[in-house]
Design brief:
The chain is mostly helical. Helices cover 58% and strands 3% of the residues. The protein has a two-stranded parallel ribbon with strand order 1-2.
Length: 153
């Protein structure tokens, strides 16, 4: 008989605590759904997460587009840009970003020269090497150094 009352007493205490905590939350004017909607809208506009294209998407030559080396390299770069890169808090010093630069260099100059240019760029993308960036190459809007692929012809 005593166990029966204990169960109901625990249930009653839980109900009373839920009622009081929910009334306290409503008394403070907290609306979780409205707050979540506000956060979603505010972060969506400023989000730096965006999907990037596959490197050989617009390639017309079937040998280059479906070559196992091209598919592997392009797939690894695609996975890096769309999942791993966006998780880092560090920002690239250059515009376009190093991975975007590598993708453009490979697409424009081919595999060997593109890899060499991308490797050079990656070795220059750190705070120590950032001291050698010429101030005239820094954009006022992005605060990054403009270093397009066209400079390496």
């Amino acid at each position: 008989m005593q166990k029966w009352w204990n169960k109901y007493l625990v249930i009653l205490i839980l109900l009373v605590s839920v009622v009081f905590t929910s009334s306290e939350i409503m008394a403070q004017g907290v609306d979780a759904v409205e707050d979540l909607q506000f956060l979603k809208e505010a972060t969506h506009e400023k989000s730096h997460f965006h999907e990037r294209e596959y490197v050989f998407k617009e390639e017309t030559n079937a040998f280059v587009k479906y070559n196992p080396v091209s598919v592997t390299l392009g797939g690894l770069l695609y996975i890096y840009q769309n999942s791993i890169s966006q998780q880092f808090s560090a920002k690239c010093l250059y515009h376009p970003s190093c991975s975007q630069f590598g993708k453009r260099a490979i697409a424009e100059y081919g595999f060997v020269k593109g890899i060499m240019l991308a490797s050079d760029r990656l070795t220059r993308c750190n705070k120590v090497a950032g001291l050698d960036i010429h101030p005239l190459t820094i954009s006022d809007s992005t605060q990054k150094s403009n270093d397009p692929v066209k400079l390496y012809r």
